[in-house]
User: Fold Universal stress protein UspA from Mycolicibacterium iranicum.
Amino acid sequence: MSSPPAVIVGVDGSDSATAAALWAVDEAASRDVPVRLVHAVTPSPDSSQITADALDHAGTIVHSAVIAVERSGKPVKVEAQVLTGPPGEILRREADGAAMLCVGSMGISHGGIGHVGSVAVAVAHSAVCPVAIVHAQGRTHSRKDWVVAEVTDSQAGEIAMVRGIEEALLRSAALRVVAARRSRYPDIHDHHAVTSMNRTVKSDWERRLAPWREKHPDLNAEVVALAGSALNYFARNQDMIALAIVPHERAAEIADLLGPRSTASSQDICFDILICEPHRLL
Assistant:
């Protein structure tokens, strides 16, 4: 029988995993579900058994994460589990039916910000719920920081917009809805065509935002229409971005961009990322 919905957090003792646990608190409180801290213990290669020392270490990691969440002072229930198996497999399984999965950007063996660890990459590809990849460091989130949602003209884009609205309201942050589109080759040299198309795209997303603005008068949302990749927008504005939200269809590209074999320039990325759930699940 599956567990009740919760915001799942993979914890491994790293700074970014602790940051993910703290990031998850508001998500869980807003949904009235528990934060469930999950640590995976993998048997040693030469034995199928988990040693007592490994279990003690796992207990210490989970206890530290529980204490960190409780010290936040937020009214949220905290659960903890130590499970046996590869971390990626454990988290993918726990994500089935979860409200959200939160992971740190780097494992305990790496530390710092920048390249995303292999477990985060694996779950970003395959999880069936929203996946947040959280950095341990970076800019202090303030009311001036942005939530940026990349949208596409598809159901997945609608989901990204809704998630962006939810996160902006939760964090009292400004929302930027970035509608990026691929230019047709003839458009590259036709400034008028690009401007006209951007105006049309912006108008379309402004229309979709209208009922949300009416429902939430305090929603500070702006539509940005551009030709090309939203990744360029992220890079240009990363000093203002607290959280970037992307459709699930972009999970592989985002994970590859930030993964262990990505380019050095991606190490400069200092905002958290939320990869939406597959559109068929909404």
